[in-house]
Amino acid sequence: MTEEVRLQVQDISKTFGITKALQHVSFNVNKGEVHALIGENGSGKSTLTNMLTGIYPMESGKFIMDGVEIHPKNQVDANNMGIAIIVQELGTLSGLTVAENIFLGHEERFITMGFRNTNQMNAEANRLLQQYGFDHIKANKMVDEYNFEDRKLIEIVKATYFHPKIVVVDETTTALSQEGREELYKHMNRIRDEGSTVIFISHDLSEILDKSDTITVLRDGIYIDTVKSKDVTEEDLKRLMVGREITGDYYRADYGEKISDEVVLSVKDVTVPGVIHNVSFDLHKGEILGFGGLSESGMHEVGKAIFGASYDREGEVVLADGTHINSIPQAIAHSIAYTSKDRDNESIVINQSIRDNIVLPSLDKLTRIPKLPFLNWAAIKAFALKYAREMSVKMQGTGQFVSELSGGNKQKVVLARWIGKDSDIVVLDSPTRGIDIKVKQDIYQQMDKMRKEGKSIIMISEELMELIGMCDRIIIMKEGTVSGEIMRNRDLNEHSLIEMMV
Amino acid sequence: MTAFKNLSGATKGYIVLISLVVLSWLIFKILTPHNFGTPEHLLSYFQASLIATVGAIGFYFVMDMGLFDFSIGANIILSAIVGCQLATDFNLGYTGLVLGAIATGALVGLCNGFFYVRLRIPSMIVTAGLALIYESLANYIAGGAEQTLPSDLRGLGQMPGNLILAFVTFILAWLILNYTKFGTYTYAIGSDEFVAKNMGINVDKFKVLAFILSGAFFGAMAVLTISYGSSMVAVTGMSSMSRNFIPTMGCFFGLAFMKYGIPLQAIILGEFIVNIIFFGFISLGAPTAIQDVITGLALLIIITFTTKVNKGEIVK
């Protein structure tokens, strides 16, 4: 590995209103390395890379790439300078073909006299897709015809086909299955081996240690340190990120506690055509029941089916009192909460305030006179503030728009909503996706507290370690059916779960 | 059924559209067999449908970006009056008629786009406000009098003139949509404006361009309208809005069939269907109010059945 500097980050600062997102951040990134950027949610990682890739305008400070100061105005400008980004959520545009997405903003090479040579563009896109080993994706097809994973593969091609000098991979792995991750790692290694640089953002510290060469730590918008991956442990990184030792238990510490015999929810032969088939299980009072499996195993649909959010669902979801749950309003009315994996599209009302998001399902109890529709604004504000604080949401106030929050803080708002609702059955789909170590710990502790209060939790996750660490019982899904069930025990490890998954 | 599923998107789209053409024809043919639906009649309906099709095709560029235009009718009236005056009062003949109307339409589009981008208020509101101004302007230019196109300048109101002008506009729109950067950016902006902006696309510029292009197509529609109808009356008080319906309806067909990859073809056949229904009612001698109610319902049904929305997909 060379030690030649590729990028100098010099004295970068950025503010959003009164929030100081970055304060005088300076560090160097070398050629031919995977350089990880870590920090808690809101530490400024994405702000920094968004400025580098032209998504946010520069405010003060400099980016110097290969000795030349750069000021990318937008993503295409950044591409032209040799910088690309693969984002966490979907970065492809519906309504365009695969080829149009790959070359969006770079169509000039196919244009003669104002007209685009579509055949030539498709042929070039197909050549690239074949070169990357993504033969099943066809350039002339609409991108909408492909699933999330394939659209991520298209993004990989789009971001790297022109051999950029720097590729930013911004929390992309959390959105991918293991197979998708391996594909991404392969290309990260290729980029490094070609002498280019990968700036890698992830909250998975073991992944960071395994896949990166160098790690820069940010905390509250301030540069903390740059270390070599081989010289540090996960505990060192946690300490650098949080600024103190992470004390107390991370996951649950108890083993051998008997699960209550009281069944609060029964799922009987639930089928959602094409997704899950004849899924049956009971959820007990005070139990954390985990669901694991590959991304497309159907486990995410189980959460929706319980909440009444699946279409064409067959079978029964029955509460202890015999109530059948068939719709979302029914589920909420009977104290069931649900947080979706697709946070931005299915859980958060993105253009509303933190306050509006938190109080949304609880408005009935925040009226001036019970059962009348006149809202009590003082109570609403106090309610939102109480639960936002309980979840330690980093915010200027509860009136701040959710769209301005980092991913982790958005997730905290979603959880604050359901904690405020005081639901007895909580379905959490990927609750710690894209969330930093400290917030993860907060969420795990909150789950443990809820469990001890007698609330029942269904936790759906692609993170096997958190299932093992938090759940009383884990159900493994494979190809839409239950492939195994395993009880909490000290000897449980990832391998025993993986065997049931694949 | 499986065989249908295996067909390409475009083939499926054509099958649905052609079936709708046949179905709408068949219903009225059964109801009024003697004065509806002969080959000569169908040709006449198709010629009439070409007028709105030209405007709808231009409007597609605006609607696909998620924008709207309430000044369609006012634009057509203003462009037709300017074109007519240039052709007659200024003795510029067909050149004045065609270029004058298209240039006026484009200018109206430019104003719509400019004010929408500058004022940062929804396109529906901007264009509704501007429509009042265009109506007044048309009234002022016409001096309150009906503008009549002399018979020797009405060649574009009949075969083959109307067909040639419409064909030229279709080809132009098809080329722009499929073979230029502008076409791709139209879809990109409609899909996700924020991402499009981050891709270096000057979103405001392309929105203004879409309005100009749409305006120019409405200018061409104005030429066909005045050539077919021989005269144009300037109206005020938003009365021009009644001209919005048919091109907008055709555009809905385009949006509904976008997923099959044949939006422009869908607009052409969609407008034809609208006209078959319209002339079908005339043949039946149905009162205007009944015609409007049933036409509206029929079109809603057609769009509902042809637009297959995925479960859970949000429709706004």
Outline the structure in words.
The complex is a heterodimer of chains A (about 500) and B (about 325). Chain A has about 500 residues and is of the alpha/beta class. Chain A folds into three domains: about 5-240, Rossmann fold (3-Layer(aba) Sandwich), CATH 3.40.50; about 260-335 and about 425-500, P-loop containing nucleotide triphosphate hydrolases (Rossmann fold); about 350-420, no CATH class. Chain A has 17 helices and 21 strands. Chain A has helices at about 45-50, 75-80, 100, 120-130, 150-160, 180-195, 205-210, 235-240, 300-305, 330-335, 345, 355-360, 375-390, 405-420, 435-450, 465-470, 495-500; strands at about 5-15, 20-30, 35-40, 60-65, 70, 85, 110, 115, 165-170, 195-200, 215-220, 220-230, 265-270, 275-285, 290-295, 315-320, 335-340, 425-430, 455-460, 475-480, 480-485. In chain A, a hairpin with a 2-residue loop joins strand 7 and strand 8 (about 115). The radius of gyration of chain A is 24 Å and the shape is globular. The relative contact order of chain A is 0.11. The mean pLDDT of chain A is about 90. The mean pLDDT of chain B is about 90. Helix content of chain B is about 75%, strand content about 0%. Chain B has a two-stranded antiparallel sheet with strand order 1-2. Chain B has about 325 residues and is mainly alpha-helical. Chain B has 13 helices and two strands, in the order H-H-H-H-H-H-E-H-H-H-H-E-H-H-H. In chain B, helix 11 packs across helix 12 (about 265-285). Chain B has two domains: about 5-35 and about 245-305, no CATH class; about 60-170 and about 205-240, no CATH class. The interface of A and B includes residues 54 and 104 of A.
